[in-house]
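It would be a great kindness if you could assist me with a short task in structural biology. Thank you for your consideration; the sequence and its tokens are set out here.
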Amino acid sequence: PFCLTDGMVLCQLSYLDLSRVMSAEDSMSFRSAYDAYSALGIHATGAFGGGGAAEAVLAAAAASKRFGEIILRNYEDVHDTARSIQFCAVTFRLDQQTDYVAFRGTDDTIDGWKEDFMIAYTRTEAQKLALDYARGLIPQTEAKTETENCGLLQRINALIGRRSGASRSEKNVKTAENYLPDGICLKESSA
């Protein structure tokens, strides 16, 4: 079963700059995306910088049975220095009923630091893009009712509010499965 460690690996995978490999309309297995990425001769960077550790994690994940065949889709990558926006999200299709959405965090550039500081006092443009991205996924989750869609948006809003330093009540947090590091696990309800 999917666990917190899996979420951390998928978030690490979101740090690959796949903009030269796929677009929002494309979908492909992680192994295929990683192979295409590697063929370009680009060195991987990860959540904690580049180098051998990030390369090793990404190569091992691509070669593994657990992660290699996971389907990547809805890849979006927006960088706008003038507006201090760094946004990247990718959806991982884990099975027919479960998508995992991973959001790339800010980097160690001046723009990244500026956005980090802005999170302390305002909702950033990247957070607004994240909400729009998640809202765009709702029809794809094949939720059975409008009530389920509203619940999903409440969970997404709670996550984005938490990232902006806004207070949240514990009743907004369902389980660790709903809130994983820099990602959201979307499951179709069985009800």
